[in-house]
Amino acid sequence: AELVNWLRRRFAANNKAISPADCDYIIFLCGSLMTNLITEVDKISSYAKGDTVTRDDINAVASRVLDASVFDLTDCVAAKDYQKAITIYRDLIEAKNEPIAILAALIRQVQRIYAAALALQSGKGEKYIAELYGFRSSYPARLLIDAARRTTVWKAAQILDICCNADTDMKSNIPDPTRTLEIAILRMAQLES
């Protein structure tokens, strides 16, 4: 809440209004380091045409942290849009992210979705997930619950297994870690068959 208020004051100093929900979104996309957020606020404020910053303004110019891009990738997997998932992955590689770092973030995200799916199955919700992971904001917990609703416990477990196998392959001197992870994403698509 303090960081959201701080962001709103920074935008106000640039003569822009922003909703608390969009501040949460910026923190999710860009991380919570204030030094980084200062740059993002200035960039978004300069880009925004109106007096109020919109989600479209944020999406147009905000620099995404790896975890936010990986969340988009897992969302594409949940939505069965594997072509877009591969595109996001290739963009991450092009941005010089190491495949092992992408895979680590992917495993962490899939574990969280799996936990959220189990929580939903046992009647728990957003508050439980926020407490479980120590989220400062309810925004990431809400995203996890939404992602868990679009999958099943079985599918989340299978995707986690595919990711863990890719991790083993990468650490077993498979010559092309980039291709190993791309194949893992394609294997996720086969779960639908």
Task: Record the SSE blueprint.
Blueprint: H1 2-13, H2 20-30, H3 34-47, H4 55-61, H5 66-78, H6 82-94, H7 99-121, H8 126-133, H9 138-149, H10 153-170, H11 177-190
Helix pairs in contact: 1-2, 1-3, 3-4, 5-6, 5-7, 6-11, 7-9, 7-10, 8-9, 10-11
Give a verbal description of the structure.
With 193 residues, the chain is an all-alpha fold. The chain has eleven helices and no strands. The longest helix is centred in the middle third of the chain and has 23 residues. It is globular and about 50 Å long. The chain starts with a helix and ends with a helix.
- What's the rounded overall pLDDT mean? 91
Number of helices: 11
Radius of gyration: 18 Å
Q: Unreliable stretches, pLDDT < 50, 5 or more residues?
A: none
Oligomerization = single chain
Which structural class is indicated by helix and strand composition? mainly alpha
- Listing every helix as H and every strand as E from the N terminus to the C terminus, the arrangement reads HHHHHHHHHHH
As a percent range, the share of strand residues is: under 5%
- CA(first)-CA(last) distance: 44 Å
Which percent range fits the helix content? over 70%
- Describe the global form: globular
Instruction: Count the beta strands.
Output: 0
| Main β sheet profile | none
Tell me briefly what this model is.
The protein is mainly alpha-helical and 193 residues long.
